[in-house]
Amino acid sequence: MTEPDRHDPATRSFRSATLSSRKPTRFDLRLSGAERQALAAELGLLDLPAFRMKGEIRPVGRNDFELLAQMEADVVQPCSITLAPVPATLSDPVRRLYIADWQDPEGDEVEMPEDDSQDPLPEVIDLLDIAREALALALPLYPRAEGVELGEAVFAAPGTAPLRDEDLKPFAGLAALKAKLEPGSGEG
Predict the structure, then answer these.
(1) 180: which of 13, 114, 132, 163 lies 20 to 30 Å off by Cα?
(2) Do residues 78 and 41 lie in contact, with contact meaning Cβ atoms separated by under 8 Å?
(3) How many CB atoms lie within 10 A of CB 106?
(4) What residue spans define the domains of the chain?
(5) Collapsed DSSP state (helix, strand, coil) of residue 16
(6) How far is it, in rounded angstroms, from Cα 78 to Cα 59?
(7) pTM, to two decimals
(8) Contact of 121 with 100, CB cutoff 8 Å
(9) Which neighbouring-strand residues pair with 47?
(10) pLDDT at residue 26, as a whole number
(11) 143 torsion bin: left (phi>0), alpha (psi -120 to 50), beta (else)
(12) CA dist., res. 77 & res. 144, Å (int)
């Protein structure tokens, strides 16, 4: 098996040891129909009609690298209420900073770094893995079809009156009582 040309923008993975330490390595990741279907199934999407991640991996300092890209995708998710298809167009920046001399924090209580885009420099930078993560993070958590509202759920044991949201707001009843008791309210 031959090693992919590191200057080919269609390359999907890059060996860290072969990245240029002087100039950026550009890429343009586009997924085939079968790859989009597989990724859609993995992420619980109804469809992934289009996906692209274009950017570059540039050297930072002596041994570190920074991946900067723009992820663009057309997705179709199930509505979180009705399961009807909800199309969306996503466009998010993607950034990863790969540190060559990464040191895992030690101790029982570890503070998270301010920049959560930092990772240890892997032997191979896999664009498909980065694209999968970027898309998963960009997806709306609770997509809703247009015009769909979350209704009130009403539950009650047989033979009892259901408890509604208004019944759980005791201060609303107090406000009504106060209005009745105020002078000039016409009651009393």
Answers:
(1) 163
(2) no
(3) 6
(4) 13-138
(5) helix
(6) 40
(7) 0.69
(8) yes
(9) 76
(10) 94
(11) beta
(12) 9
